[in-house]
Amino acid sequence: MGKTKKIEIKAFRFNAETDYLPYYKTYEMEVEKNELVLDLLNRIKYEHDGSFSYRRSCRHGICGSCAIKVNGKPVLACKENANDMIELFGDELIFDPQSKERVIKDMIIDKGDFWDKHAAIKPYVDCDIDPHPTKENLISKEEVENILDADYCIQCGNCHYACPALSVNKEFFGPAAFVAAYRFSADSRDTASEERLEITSQLGQGVWDCVKCFECVEACPKEIKPLEKITKLHNLQFEKKIAPSNVATRHAEGFVRSIGKHGFLDEADIVKYSEGPIGALKHMKDAFKMLKAGKIHLIDQLPLVDNMPKSKNLDEIKKLIEISQTNKL
Amino acid sequence: MSKIQYALYTGCTARESTPELLSSTLAVGEKLNIELNILEEASCCGASHLQDFDPFLSDVLNARNICYAEKMGFTMVTLCNTCQINLSLTKEKLDSDPAYKAKVNEKLKETGLEYKGSVAIKHFLYVLVDDFGVENIKAKVEVPLSEYNIAPFYGCHNIRPSELHAKNNGGENPYRPTSLERLIEALEGVSVEYASKNKCCGFHVDLQAPDTSNTLTGNALVDAIDNNADIVVTPCPLCHLNMDIKQESAGKLLGRDIDIPVLHMPQMVALALGCTPKEIGLKYHITKAKQLIS
User: Which of A175, B127, B191, B211 would be a feasible disulfide site paired with B181, CB 3.0-4.6 Å?
Assistant: First the structure.
């Protein structure tokens, strides 16, 4: 047995059937060198309070049941060494459920919203196959590689409940659903990829509402990088030429236009170009404040006036755009 | 101390809507004898949006940007978290995939350039904190910030994904970053502890999802205010734009009055080092730093 360390655990306690408000209860314990966060959950239950509730099953990082937050960090309790958490956060650990607003009891949450989002993106290979094939239905190595690591997802929900865009917009699909959308859309046997891209490109719910904070990348215990798949879903809309022209797609494409002209991004122009003349009106109040503070200048906003800074060797940039641009809106 | 040299990638924002970021950075460089050589050939990093539209083009353009730092032979320094991450993501892709690097170099060759992968890319925050050193900064403080409670706001793209930043860009733990606190304390300010310091400001969806953007910005500012902050400080000009300009809209959405000045990290350092008001450029802020303008 290795060295032990004395710590305090403040665990979130709430029973939706009996409690009016949640509270934290403190448990003291000596932690041994190789103990996992899951061991500490077990010890709260076995040594302190048998009513303490949490989900657990495989203890091998594959069922995705035991996901919780330790001092705000999403972890899979059976994969996370307790001493790493003590080293990072000190000898007071705070155990929270993935989502406090969805708690049923203690660490157990209602993951209904997660599964609804998952189901909505058609999380299966959609194709007509011969029900009595004479040989295996194989796909090539390259076709498998195209799926990347997206099918390693164990649906623990860590990325979903770490996503700030989802926390303030319940319509947003969230990173895990996007990973599944990419996984099946990238499958060469699938025939529903356009339908999935259509669903996941809608403003308000789709990939364009992703804030690009990388919380999902940090939260994933399988190191899947959900944001990488979200970017792939963005790219696929343009590659398959099905991206509609809207404020978000014009914003992405507008960078080429600006860089081609100046090297730099024309900050005022990209707003006008993305929003269109009517949409741009809602930025008038901010624009006025910016004018007043000298952040932008009235003269620069006149047609035919170009006071934009220019990158040196701009002709190189123009040339590289000409020979390297792959996608169009 | 002998002069340390860097290749400065200014990014677009410091040349346009936040000129105070560039002037305060150059002033800090001057004070600390850090030579920042501006990469005049550089173009926009794509801000993660060009990457959504055309990833190959964005890698070619960022590889070109890095080429010019390689020609200079100095570590490439960024002033914006989003520039930092986009340049680093391109570098990571090219350095880890020789076939892809060759494909990008095939395009660069047409302009007489070649990406080698020979320079590191680092945000100015970590130039100050890690290369120059907080102790050395502390020794240069002329105007201690001891009267101010300063709330650090890190911005996502300098701390996440941690794997990308581990080697050359601070290597912070994104759940417990410390560089800004260490810097604030070196300048003798009081560092404010609050939960939102490592959260997202929402800037990148400002156009298509203004409510998401303003709520996230508002939540962070309100959290800083509720923990007695006088000032927020950030190393990212995009966080700065959202947090400085959107206070009124965010306040309306959250039903709170929000009025708190937000400083760029180099402005805070410039204040403590006794730089001139013109260099610090507080006049360019929408939410005025009343307590700092005397």
Answer: B191
